[in-house]
Design brief:
Layout (H helix, E strand, L loop, with lengths): L1 H14 L12 H12 L5 H8 L3 H13 L18 E9 L3 H9 L4 E6 L6 E7 L2 H12 L5 E8 L14
Length: about 170
């Protein structure tokens, strides 16, 4: 038991370092834990420990650290159609002025699920989930386009969601 505790502490020390760009350094064990949770976010810590070679307590500590560092989240992913949201769209937004201010304002909107600042045809891409077309129109026309600095928007309404996965692992 003592050697496992020492190994766990030394693994925690290695895992807690930050890379040169300020992001947490993730060792192979932390990456394996993330992959286990991506397969099943409800997988017991004991089962994860068995798969990655750590005790249940060590896995619990690692998972909590990954959550605290913002490396990952454990969430329930739903199909919007099954919970009453019939319209999804990706909106490309061109901005005059501070892109980060607009991205922050969009992030505050409940209907906006995804915001990314880009280089290319659009300054920002925002994914929105709405109850119906009227709701979608309201969000785009009265709220997004009304933000100071929004120059133009282009909407890409989803006809059918063919693939949505969060299983990209840790490659």
């Amino acid at each position: 038991m003592h050697s496992e505790a020492v190994a766990s502490r030394s693994a925690e020390q290695r895992d807690s370092r930050e890379s040169k760009n300020g992001t947490p350094h993730l060792d192979a064990v932390s990456l394996a834990i993330i992959e286990q949770l991506q397969e099943d976010g409800r997988r017991p810590y004991a089962a994860i420990g068995k798969a990655v070679g750590l005790s249940e307590a060590a896995v619990r500590q690692r998972v909590q650290k990954l959550l605290d560092q913002g490396v990952m989240q454990i969430v329930a992913v739903t199909d919007p159609l099954t919970v009453g949201f019939r319209r999804q769209a990706m909106v490309g937004i061109n901005v005059e002025g501070d892109v980060e201010e607009i991205a922050e304002a969009l992030s505050d909107m409940a209907e906006v699920e995804y915001v990314v600042m880009t280089a290319g045809s659009f300054d920002i891409l925002a994914e929105i989930v709405c109850e119906d077309d009227d709701h979608l129109l309201d969000v785009i026309n009265k709220r997004m386009r009304a933000l100071p600095g929004v120059r133009s928007t282009e909407s890409f309404v989803y006809l059918k969601l063919k693939k949505q996965t969060y299983m990209w692992g840790t490659r």
